[in-house]
Sequence to fold (246 residues):
Amino acid sequence: MSNLCFVRKTTLSSPDRDSDLNLPVLSSRARHDKRVSQLRHRGGSRGSNEFSLQPLDPMHIPEMQVVYQMGDNIKGNVTVINSDTYALSKIRINDVRSNVNDTHLYMEVDVKFPGVFIEGSYKANGLIVVFPINGKGVFNISMSDVSATWKLSGQVIKRNEVDYLRLDHFNMRPVVGDMKFYASELFTGSDELNAAALTFANQFWPIVYEALLPFADEGWDQVMTDAANKIFLKVPFKELFPNGPL
Fold:
């Protein structure tokens, strides 16, 4: 972690996690749901050579773009580069709701994390009122008590007479209990503006987060859909869901 970061990464634990299995923790209700069982069977935090998947913890994202605009006075784009997200292996799957048939899938998965830590590099340009942003540096975000509903939608496609599931969207808008944020060089050449922006962002993070969340969701959608399809487009539908439609 960069020595410029103000937020310390902490090790998170879950008391009811099976210490011998690197699998998601399930609520008592979800443990008996076959839909969760199939998701759990395909899960894990060590990655997969078969599917060319990176480990889940940390989850490495080479690049993600977020374009935002709120009126004429707040607009711009941020490119997140080589980010790592930690503690995703502490996931708790609380519930799954699905509508899957031979042609389409729609699934909602309620998940919860004790905390999540993200670090990486960024490039940003845009405008906040009369202040131009043209920054490039490192960042980190520390979040606690994170919950979300993953919303997955897709369709069954046929290749060489074999059915595969192709995900079209993977949406989520996490609810966060608390958040701390740091970024270097938001305003290139102005330490005072940078410090003021960080103070504002950390003091009023719920307002900032809520405003940027819809735009971040679009970036997550692209990244998570591509990652999920590395599995779905390599495993026939009947093997992915051996018990038939969920």
Q: What stands out?
A: The beta strands are 25-26, 59-70, 74-86, 92-100, 104-128, 131-159, 162-171, 175-183. The domain at 25-240 is CATH 3.15.10.30 (Bactericidal permeability-increasing protein; domain 1). The first strand starts at residue 25 and ends at 26.
